[in-house]
Amino acid sequence: ELKEKEYAKYRAFYKEFGKVLKEGVHFDHENREKLQDLLLFDSSNTDPDVPVTLEQYTGRMREGQKEIYYIIGETLGDLKGSPYLEKFRQKGYEVIFMTDPVDEWIMQDMKDYKGKNFKAVNKGDVDIDEKDEKKEKKEHEKQYKDLVEYLKGQLKEVQDVRLSSRLIDSACCLVADEHAPGAHMEKLFRAMGQDMPLAKPILEINPTHPLITNMQALFGKDKAHPKLSEYAAVLFDQALLMEGQKVRDPAAFARRMNALLVEESKGLL
What we know:
five-stranded mixed sheet; 13 helices
């Protein structure tokens, strides 16, 4: 009643006790649906002071949209600039932002809302392409097949390399398996001093990005070119940074970047 009749007061209440309501989603199975209706979230389509409820989100879902899209991170700033949102923004899909430490935990229990399943935009595969885009992707998969296999061999830190359906402007990103813990969950466990088995991520590359098309051209000319392994390592480190993680070897990353910048700057002189 407070949410419906005195929303400003409810917002003040929610700022203090929202995390507790979210914990109830995990602990109070009997009242889970009622508690879900009380939750408020920022999203890619809302202003900071105008959060969205799950009822509002599902009420304005795009025609044919079957899932509730969300992403978990540390700050709104990080999430708003996330490469994982590029295709969703282009197509007008709203993505819920989750920044509370408890969010990743409760999402293991909050599987659906009124028949609509939740889908993390940085996990598993996404299927929001139109028919012509799917056809183009199949053509790209044939074109880049050998380069993808090369990257798999070079990058032992990843379990797989594939072409991306979620990138527009970025060259690459890392995604987790559909049911694997995300990078945010791993960081939370490390912050609490708890060890967590590191699941190897999947590297997705954008076949239309100039960096990838140039790699493909170089690979076509000389599959043994020494620069290819350097580019592969930079790609992985870049994907780690965009995910909010630290690169595994900062000194090596700096050396590679310096070498690339020196090479690039020569062309300007």
